[in-house]
Amino acid sequence: MLTLGETIDRAAIAFPDKEAVCFINENECRYTYTELNEDVNRLAGGLVKMGISAGDKVSLWMQNRPEWIVAWFAVTKVGGILVPMDTWYKSSEAQYILHHSESVAVITSVRFGKNDFLGMLGEIQSDLPNLKHIIALGEVPESAPKGTVSYNSVLESGDDWRENQEYTDRRFQNELDNVAFILYTSGTTGKPKGAMLTHMNIVANAKDAASIMEVTHRDRFLVPVPFSHLFGCVLGVVLTVVHGASMVVMDTFEPEDVLKVIESEQCTICHGVPTMFIRELEVLKVRKYDTTSLRTGIIAGAPCPVDTMEGIMNVMKCNICIGYGLTECSLVTLTRFEDTLAQRVETVGKPLPNVEVRIVDGEHNPVPTGAMGELACRGYNVMKGYFKMPEQTEETIDSEGWLYTGDLATSDPKGYYRIVGRKKDMVIVGGFNVYPREIEEYLIADPRIQEVAVVGVPDHDMGELVAAVIVPEPGVEITGQEVVDLCYGKMASAKVPRYVFTADELPISSRGKVQKYILRKDLGERIEKDGIAKIVPTEVRLKKKVDRLPLVVDKILTSCMFQEAQKSDLERFLMSLSEEQEEMFKKLVMGAEA
């Protein structure tokens, strides 16, 4: 097994003139493996001259670019520890990551879209006592924070890397068990935690995933997911380099642009979250792009609808794999090429080689096959722990090396695992445990629904009730009543949504996950502020009406308005009335006091 730095060295030796990276934007650029590794060594040499020591943390706050890849390998080659940061971070979030990680340097873009990275760093610089260096890609403005230097100047200072003895010594001192990067969790239930992942964690995980996907140096990866997440950096960057394949880099996701690139660059592998593929398939309904070069890829992050999976395989001609992983241990399970459609959409596949998985109860005892419990895993992929959080580490990883994921799952006799939901997403309706993922998987099967997210909202009587946010298929209308009626009778009453909202899109993080904490907060406030009424299933409403009918019918019959023979006609008439019409009719027949 190789360290990260050794993987890029080996690729440059084995495939010196092969295209390593193609960056698609307004200024397209391409790197061979020789050119890429040369820049890695130059930047690494420049970082050593700046005083970056082994074990120092260097944050990387930048959109997907070739320079991101260069920094990824350069920092780890000199024994530094990389700290990826999401581009959507605001200044307060960036301040927390930079401060908690004790980063001594940050490599960043000047700006990206509306994000003024240097401006935000200027706001928080005084609160970051460890931060000594800001390295900015692009022309450094006069307003830049104190001490900011250009990326190119650091690169140029490392031109003599071959004669730099300190760098030469450092690059060969890395060990597989050394921490290579600290990846912070999304922090949706509290402060983000920094998962410490080693060279072994990362490289072995990429290698095992590649073996299942049958990756070779002939493949061309398209990686539209952010490099700041393990999906992008481990299953994209590292997986590509381990096999000397080529990578096509895009700094933003636009579904039509992705399809254009697949066609023009003849990409064979494409990763993404379900939402990305859903939107690509929507484009293909109205415009034709040649995606027959696609061979495979990984979908992760959320359940994949059946029609989406069918579209990927039949329309895009891609034998896609479904994967399950998490920040603390990268990829855990993956489906195989020969798996059925049902196994791809209903499960997350089987464990990777050399990774153990089991389902446990609340006391961490294994449960029988088919029973629901928490998914735990053990193997080379498990993190060393959370940075500066020993108590949280002890709660997550036991003395035998089992990592408890917080995800609820089941297993089947063939060794496939199905994710039921997050323990922390559980909604408690009148003491009944409801798992949103089960409801989401049921609703997404309806052809009128493109995307759905289910959360719990506060309720005075029941504690919580289920609320669903629906993104309908384009041009399709579906009412909240229809959604409720779709569920009623097909699942326990507590699971049936009592509030349904439609939206053009769901709030998605840069890591491709639905931000349910935003939905919970927004929906709860809307329900309370606007006095939104609960939706009663039609069957329940009619049953209540039926229960009220006898008294009204008897009153009418006894007053000789109808004959007994016409009783059924009367009942049908009353059943057809809306609640408001029924109330008016009752008052008319029985008196205003009714």
What would CATH call the class of the domain at 426-530? Alpha Beta
Biggest sheet: strands side by side, in what order?
A: 2-1-11-10-12
Mean pLDDT: 89
- In the CATH hierarchy, the third-tier topology of the domain at 426-530 is known as GMP Synthetase, Chain A, domain 3
Low-pLDDT stretches: none
* Reported CATH architecture of the domain at 426-530: 2-Layer Sandwich
Q: Please, how many helices?
A: 20
Instruction: Let me know the largest β-sheet.
Output: 5 strands, mixed
Class by alpha and beta content: alpha/beta
Share in helix: 25-40%
Distance between the termini: 82 Å
Q: Over the alpha carbons, how many angstroms does the gyration radius reach?
A: 28 Å
Estimate what percentage of residues fall within beta strands.
15-25%
Can you say what the CATH homologous superfamily of the domain at 426-530 is?
ANL, C-terminal domain
Please report the total strand number as a whole number: 26
The coarse overall form would be globular
